[in-house]
Amino acid sequence: MSSTPKYKSSSSLTTSSNRQDYLKAILSLDLKGAKASTSAISAKLNTQPASVTGMFGVLSNLNLINYIPYKGAKLTDEGRSQAISLVRKHRLWETFMVEKLGFRWDEVHEVAEQLEHVNSEQLIDRLDDFLGFPNFDPHGDPIPDSLGNIADRRSLVVVSDLEVGKMASIRGVLSSSDSFLKHLDDLGIRLGLEFEVVKVYTYDGSIQVDSAGESMIWSRKLVEQLLAEVN
After folding, report:
1. Helices (H), the chain
2. Is the distance from CB of 171 to CB of 157 less than 8 angstroms?
3. Is 202 exposed, middle or buried (0-12, 13-18, 19+ CB in 10 A)?
4. Is residue 103 part of a domain?
């Protein structure tokens, strides 16, 4: 009977944060219904395929993934639990920085990458409570709850699809480029902004909205990239 091969690893492979980045990448592909192949993870993490193969071996030895060479990796129950916990922490920290600390949407990812490795579930549970248990982060990505449940992003709608008279709140974006996020800041469009669609201009697809008594015109290019929750 053959046994699962054991892999030797270097210290660069076995750092906790590095392992966790791989778990998140595998989860991300899994949630999209994509295969976590060596090439897919290599592209996602911008690393060499040989490094991916080595890390797959490390994670397999730790019983965090099931890995078959040339066929890709699948998270075990424990691996998935750890990956979801990381995603939850990352997205809660991003929400906290945008909503409470005044960070711009384009400034939070790198800081959240560091904060997600803080190992205190009590802290994260209190942060979740403080924020009012948000379902989505500033980019419209679902935030797992304390039980690992993930909200369905399909409950959000693209602002360009809203009809006149609809009341909604900004919950995320489809484009996360720095230039687009800075453009939102220039326009005063922020996470949680409540608005009503007053008029849709059929000529160019732009819309007129009212927010806190202020009237604004949002271009079609803009509203096609905004996600909202209907109130």
Report:
1. 11-14, 16-31, 38-45, 49-61, 77-99, 108-115, 121-130, 178-187, 220-223
2. no
3. exposed
4. yes
Token pair in block for residue 206: 């732009």
Residues 122 and 70 in one domain: no
- Render pLDDT for 193-220 as a digit per residue (tens, 0 to 9): 999 999 999 999 999 999 999 999 999 9
φ/ψ of 230, rounded to 5, equals -70, 130
Query: pLDDT tens digits for 162-205?
Result: 999 999 999 888 877 778 888 888 898 987 899 999 999 999 99
| Cα gap 125→146, rounded to integer Å | 7
How many CB atoms within 10 Å of residue 120? 10
CA dihedral 111, 112, 116, 118 (to 10 degrees): 40
Sign of the dihedral defined by the CA atoms of residues 201, 204, 205, 208, in that order: negative
Q: Which tokens sit at 143?
A: 């935030």
65, 109: one domain? no
DSSP label of 229? E
Question: Domain span at residue 39?
Answer: 11-75
Q: Confirm whether 208 is domain-assigned.
A: yes
User: 55 lies in a domain?
Assistant: yes
> Which of 25, 42, 75 delimits the end of a domain?
75
CATH of the domain at 117: 1.10.10.10
User: Strand runs (DSSP E) across 174-225, as ranges?
Assistant: 194-200, 207-211, 214-218
- Residue ending a domain, among 151, 173, 191, is 151
